[in-house]
Amino acid sequence: MNNFDFRNPTELIFGKGQIAMLSKRIEKGKKILMTYGGGSIFKNGVYDQVKKALDGYDVIEFGGIEANPDYDTLVKAIAICRENKVDMILAVGGGSVVDGTKFIAAGVNFNGDPWDFLIGKAPVCKAIPFASVLTLPATASEMNNGAVISRRATKEKYAFHNPDGFPVFSILDPTVVFSLPKRQISNGIVDIYAHTFEQYLTTSIHTKVMDRWAEGLLQTLVELAPELLKDDRSYDACADYMLTATMGLNGFIAMGVDEDWSTHMIGHELTALHGLDHGVTLAIVFPGVMSVMRKEKRCKLLQYGERVWGIKEGSEDERIESAIRKTDDFFRSVGMKTRLSEHGIGQETIDVIVNRFRERKWNLGEGGIVTPDKVEQILKERL
Amino acid sequence: MNNFDFRNPTELIFGKGQIAMLSKRIEKGKKILMTYGGGSIFKNGVYDQVKKALDGYDVIEFGGIEANPDYDTLVKAIAICRENKVDMILAVGGGSVVDGTKFIAAGVNFNGDPWDFLIGKAPVCKAIPFASVLTLPATASEMNNGAVISRRATKEKYAFHNPDGFPVFSILDPTVVFSLPKRQISNGIVDIYAHTFEQYLTTSIHTKVMDRWAEGLLQTLVELAPELLKDDRSYDACADYMLTATMGLNGFIAMGVDEDWSTHMIGHELTALHGLDHGVTLAIVFPGVMSVMRKEKRCKLLQYGERVWGIKEGSEDERIESAIRKTDDFFRSVGMKTRLSEHGIGQETIDVIVNRFRERKWNLGEGGIVTPDKVEQILKERL
Question: 20 to 30 A from B183, CA-CA: which of A335, B4, B296, B382?
């Protein structure tokens, strides 16, 4: 097991009707900036519940935070916080709204251009307090200290982590999952599966207990998927789905392990070049990483196949092949097209992506084992 | 899934050599009370490592905290903190030292008799900051806000929880496990198994993901046990053991589930009356709870048998019987005698315990389903 340092102070307030707890968690008299996105909260009743819970508070609303939250939008919110001496920010939305809010919260006290956080020119500033009411399970941003921010004007997109930038609390009411469109559910399932995989499917067994927990999340997703894709989802399925999403990227399965993240890095390029949904890119790339890196990840692939898919028969090579096929089949079963050609993407795109990684001299994956040559093999395997 | 509220702000600093991090986590110039127990830290090198890391700090030592920490000892430490205006307390030891330190930390600012916390006469006072260097994995006190305090003078023993009483940080160096005597390892394995069981083996399936995580801890313990009972334990086994202990009772597997705890309550009586080790009592009582409560816990017993022990053949009744036998066998395999008669305990003790529960009108277990009549059946089954 690797040495590690774990801390996650976010309070998770989970369950039906918990949005009403807002008034118990935020001190009376506080000035609040309420951030949200494109307006889904007006349709699913969350806006009304939040406003009711915050009756009597001084609330400034800031809507319109985009999917892939944009720097130019967020700096406007920073200015509003400063002008109005906002005490805390309440993000009401999905991962993008929470990510954007993390940037706003860190920017308020920073004397300079907060873009510098993202490009490593300045250490991230201590954030003003912020919290969230989550409406879309997937990213676990509601219980971690990371965020991804885009800048459309310069076509840039970067992640940052803020050591003290965890939400003070996050309210997760699983009934928000009832009304999510199937496309968001499919994307979410693959995204959570991939988050877990990136922290699990590495070159060695670091810790038995974290492996079991990661496998537990994968097994749960496999079990939940058919229920979640029905028109009429049960509360318990929605609750387990929401909890699994949060546990997938809040650090709880990352103790003492190496992490890969090459699938995400390659997937980001596919999104940048072709506008594919994030989840779609992961469903394409992951089986390729499994296939091309099978020698390095052999031990974990065999364990994964046996424990998540019950694969015990055949030679080691056959079992690995079977584990990859099962994973691909699973992604397809939730509605994903898992081949580049199915999205009209061919060799030209592969060349562009591989050249980018070569130019940046980026070796991906745990210990840099996913070299640009490997990226090329991975993408070719997915044509 | 039940609604729940989860929060655990403790920083976990885990791994070989991490005791040296003390000087990075504690501000220079702070006055520290260092608490410890009977002196095992002088033998395993932990005392020297802590003192080296705290070179240059103003440290007052307070040793002699007993297994089952005693009120009369702890109030002396509270007085020392007040007299010396101690800024923080550093517990160096096992669960008893950490538990005792929680009581001291909460007592310092309390204007009255802190025993009142334990008997519910006063709300627990905000604790002064405290942290721990753990030397014995088992109780997870290093990452939760609960403690059990005894008062030998009045033969009383109570638990308390302090909402804001989590350790600021806990340092877990798995090399401390190398030198633990087998008896402590056996007790620890059963204790951690039982902690997990109490949060898992209940009357219904509340959440798939928490079930998977609880099963993951149980599977890990079953896998680790033979390695841990060897004279020469591997670092990775010690590390997984230590991490499993912490994850077993830090709230991470308790989200949205009912909890039982009847085995612990019955076990405490056996310790009080016959001085049996805590782990020994759990190994005796748990198979009895499984057997007598098999109707109520049917669904979970079948799931447990299949997932932890691979029991898939036979009728439901046979599979449950087999799951109970496997559990009993496992406890015996780590060196436990699992029958009352093997400890020279007979019907008289059962009568005393059952009468105590009847007098107190205590119904144990989730939803009070373990009535005094059931306790009687459970203990008779374990003769």
Answer: B382
What local confidence, expressed as pLDDT, does residue B321 receive? 98
Residue A170 phi, psi (nearest 5):
-135, 135
- The yes-or-no verdict on residue A138 having pLDDT over 90 is yes
Kindly identify which residue of chain B lies nearest to residue A235, measuring between CA atoms.
Answer: B1
DSSP state of A44: S
Residue in B14, B220, B255 closest to A4 by CB: B14
User: Which amino acid belongs to residue B118?
Assistant: L
**Confidence check: pLDDT of A96 > 90:** yes
Distance from CA of B53 to the nearest CA of A (A): 18
Q: Which residues of chain B have pLDDT under 70?
A: none
Q: Choose, out of B208, B221, B312, the residue to mutate when testing the contact with A (most A CBs < 10 Å).
A: B208
Q: Tell me how close the Cα of B72 comes to any Cα of chain A, in angstroms.
A: 34
Token pair listed for B144 = 């939760």
Q: Nearest residue of A to residue B4 by CA position?
A: A14
Distance CA B90, CA B102 (A): 10
Per-residue pLDDT, A75 = 97
Beta strands in B168-227 (DSSP E): 169-172
Q: Please, are residues A174 and A239 in contact by the beta-carbon 8 Å criterion?
A: yes
Gyration radius from chain B CA atoms: 21
B223 close to A (CB below 8 A)? yes
Least CA distance to A10: which residue of chain B?
A: B7
User: Under DSSP, is residue A62 helix (H, G, I), strand (E, B) or coil?
Assistant: strand
CA-CA distance, B256 to B209, in Å (whole number)? 10
Confirm if A244 and B212 have CB atoms less than 8 A apart: no
Strands A4-14 and B4-14: antiparallel
Q: What is the pLDDT of residue B272?
A: 86
The one-letter amino acid code at B237 reads: A
Those residues with Cβ within 8 angstroms of residue B48's Cβ, 6 or more apart along the chain or in another chain:
none
CB atoms near residue B339 (< 10 Å): 17
DSSP, residue by residue, A124-181: PPPPPPEEEEESS-SS-GGGSSEEEEEEGGGTEEEEEE-TT---SEEEE-GGGGTT--
Determine whether the interchain pair B14/A5 forms a contact, defined as Cβ–Cβ distance below 8 Å: yes
Q: Which of A67, A77, A14, A89 is nearest to A250 (CA)?
A: A14
The torsion region of residue B357 among left (phi > 0), alpha (psi -120 to 50) and beta comes to alpha
Instruction: Give the distance from CA B44 to its chain's centroid.
Output: 22
Residues 228-267 of B with CB under 8 A from A: 235-236, 239-240, 243-244, 247, 252, 255-256
Of B4, B8, B243, the CB nearest to A15: B4
**Residue whose structure tokens are 């795109």:** A349
Mean per-residue pLDDT, A46-53 = 96
